[in-house]
Amino acid sequence: MILFYYVRIRWRFTLKSRSLYLNQLKEYIDTPVVKIITGVRRSGKSYLLKLLIKQLENRGVSQEQIITLDFESIRNEVYRSYKALYDYVMALADKNKGKSYILIDEIQEVDQWEKAIRSFLVDIDCDIYLTGSNAHLLSGELATYMAGRYVELELYPLSLNEYLDFYSIDDNYEDNFYEYLKYGGFPGLYQMPENENLKFQYIKGIYNSVVLKDVVQRNQIRDIELLERIFLYIADNIGQIFSAKKIADYLKNQGRRVGIESVYSYIHALESAMIIYSAKRYDVKGKKILDRMEKYYLSDLGIRHALLGFRQSDIGQLIENVVFLELKRQGYTVHVGKEVQREIDFIASKRGKKIYIQVTYLLASEEVIEREFKPLLNVKDNHRKIVISLDRMQAGNRDGIEWMNLIDFIRNFEG
User: Fold this and answer.
1) Is the dihedral angle over the CA atoms 74, 77, 78, 83 positive or is it negative?
2) CA distances from 164 to 10, 48, 347 (A)
3) 114 touches 145 (CB < 8 A)
């Protein structure tokens, strides 16, 4: 049974920078495309719009030119049809002497929203920014309807660097890293008291909101208990290669019979809500993507610990999740590498650049060093290769492979 906790956060007066995303948005200000910001609920999409408003005002845009709507508010429920939304925005835009800047939060709550948005592009001088909590906001017919008229920016909960910035931390990174590892990076935690129970209660509220609004309701799922069991299995096994059949077998052992395709449909619904991400396997030798055996990672580790508790023994899985999300934030496409009988944790690709990465807790013995370095030694190309661990004493480079401390990697990684 889902218990629903909800805390609405009022941001402090001083806005903290999320420069990675704001800089990307700034490049698109006044361009003739719709800017669509997607991300799991409470990852900071509304906050990013606040930062954008400040940026627009600094450029001389008046408050009257900025039209905002938040569809998580009941007061805006009357505009949840495309025609009502169109009429409301047009009435405000007609009063503006200059360009209108339209910022709409959680646009997926509007039925056939794309019709109104496309009309704005035709009917008025405007610049449009939308947020949504669904990875497939522009899938299928919608993508066709908006083809060539939008850019998408995926936003994640706070990175370690952003976390340190929010809390104004400029030293003692290691201790604060473990706090970040435990509670994750939902920006709303910045407003919470230093109380573990309250923090985890807040995170459970986010989880329940995602499950109820973005998974159950949107996908018309009836068996919520089965959905939660599948999610908890994935959360407990992040960074492990497994298939839908393995989940189905696990559920069968618990007395729940479910088909493999049904498991995949539940996983797909969780991915659409951006609460989990998958990394497919890539055959390094055959240079092809392999089907139906992948790894899964969480959008935020705080969810895992709020539901399952924090286990120090799982730190290897946790830091792998951290590296995966950092690569995604920097715009990489991430696969799991298969090198003959060995595994490469990540093959990250972006615009012709490729990085091979192994992640481990500690390189505590020659046996572990051999295990982690050998798959990368067998890759015969000139792309960057890195082994990442939490060791403070490092050997630098080994046979052309970099050996980096995890915190140093994240602090200095620019993609």
Assistant:
1) positive
2) 20, 18, 27
3) yes
> 117: part of which helix (H) or strand (E)?
helix 113-123
Q: How far apart are CA 201 and CA 197, in angstroms?
A: 6
Contacts of the segment 143-151: beta carbons below 8 A, 24+ positions apart: 145/114, 145/115, 145/118, 146/34, 146/114, 146/117, 146/118, 149/32, 149/33, 149/34, 149/118, 149/121, 150/33, 150/34, 150/35, 150/36, 151/28, 151/33, 151/34, 151/35, 151/36
Q: Looking at domain 19-154, what is its CATH homologous superfamily?
A: P-loop containing nucleotide triphosphate hydrolases (3.40.50.300)
Enter the tokens of residue 25.
């948005």
Cα–chain-centroid distance for residue 181?
Answer: 15
- Quote the tokens at residue 388: 């990442």
State both tokens at 256. Answer: 């729940």
> Strands 342-350 and 34-38, how do they pair?
unpaired
pTM over 0.85? The answer is yes
Comparing C-alpha atoms, which of 341, 407, 414 is closest to residue 384? 414
β-bridge partners, 398:
401
Distance between CA 35 and CA 127 in Å, rounded? 9
List the 276-283 sheet strands across, edge first: 288-298, 276-283, 333-339, 342-350, 353-359, 384-389, 401-405, 397-398
Which residue matches tokens 């939660």? 228
pLDDT digits (tens, 9 = 90+) for 246-290: 999 999 999 999 999 999 999 999 999 999 999 999 888 767 776
Q: What are the angstrom distances between the C-alpha of 270 and each of 215, 219, 275, 392?
A: 6, 10, 6, 37
Residues 6+ apart with CB under 8 A from 242: 293
Tokens 């998974």, residue?
A: 215
Can you give the length of the chain in residues? Answer: 415
Q: Is 277 helix (H, G, I), strand (E, B) or coil?
A: strand
CATH 3.40.50.300 spans which residues of the chain?
19-154
Q: What is the token pair recorded at 178?
A: 């473990």
Q: What b/e string do you get for 291-320 counting C-beta neighbours within 10 Å, with b at 16 or more?
A: eeebbbbbbbbbbbbbbeebeeebeebbbb
The string of pLDDT tens digits covering residues 93-134 is 999 889 999 999 999 999 999 999 999 999 999 999 999 998
Which of 111, 149, 155 shows the shortest CA–CA distance to 128?
149
Cα–Cα distance, 44 to 46 (Å, whole number)? 6
